[in-house]
Fold this protein.
Amino acid sequence: MQRVGRLDQVAGVRLTERGDGMERGVRVLEFRTGSGFAFDVLVDRAMDIGRCEHRGRALGWQSATGFIGPWYFEPEELGWLRGFGGGLLTTCGMEHALFMAEDSAAHFNYPPKQTERFGLHGRVSYLPATLSGYGVRWDGDDCILWAEGEIAQAAVFGENFVLRRRVEAKVGEDRLTIHDEVTNAGWVPTPHMYLYHVNVGFPALDAGSELLIPASNPTPRGDHSVEGYRTFHGPTEGYVEQVTEHDVHAEADGSVPVAVANRAAGFGAYEVFNRKQLPRHFIWRMLGQGTYAVGIEPSTNRTSGRLPARESGELIVLAPGESRRYDLELGALPDGGAIEAFAARVEAIGAPAG
């Protein structure tokens, strides 16, 4: 601080608003850590992470839809895809995630609503946050950039969830952290599903990029092969998405490190989540033209979805006032040394090959 008049010269967080097209009116918090790591928190899209880059190189894939305003949400069936802008993080939930389903709504005690139809991946990513605050906090010589907000998802004779989200990044680092707390603020026990749709794109993803993950027992959702699912090729005409679920292995505290690394470019993107909070993980391979992305996705549930989870007793039901907490770290591997160090971390977990 002896070398600058204000922190914004080298790092900071500022609130802006998109001014044109279908993104018009969307509030965005722009973070810069000063290391070359910069990202956008989409305040009006559940405080998800949109653009994220390191020294001009993107970590996350962005779709053709852009980060449209939540007022364009189409909740039915696959309507979620109309505004799936990608970005580094799209949150899925809170009452439902994964593919469409029709389930009992009898617990809401409203006779005209005996069942409810859920569209793809739920509603949360289209809900605006009430921004509690944002700014800079000093902890000794460490400078922390932060933002915090609340996202409410509620209906009369329906769910009443509140997501409290805090995003932090330390000046000088190449990573961000997210701490989420989902609370059933209603008076009825309510099912809860949650999924982090982390979308890695070019140039972290390219021909020859690798998946670094401590996992075994890969299982396809569908009839595709899982052979070679940890390596990626370039964009392919007519490509059909592939989803592979696997058993992830963790460090002693439950942490699971996962990355997509482009060794040739010396660049990668990574996540760290906690298996105690999110016991399932799967890979979304969508190596098509334009839609060229890999999702590294920790989840509360298996890819089979809501109804099988209910039948097996794995569907979470939050009691009134009950909360679930989730932590996620996202960051850049900015050079070959960082990639090798991360690969060594994964290798040290000692998971069986899969």
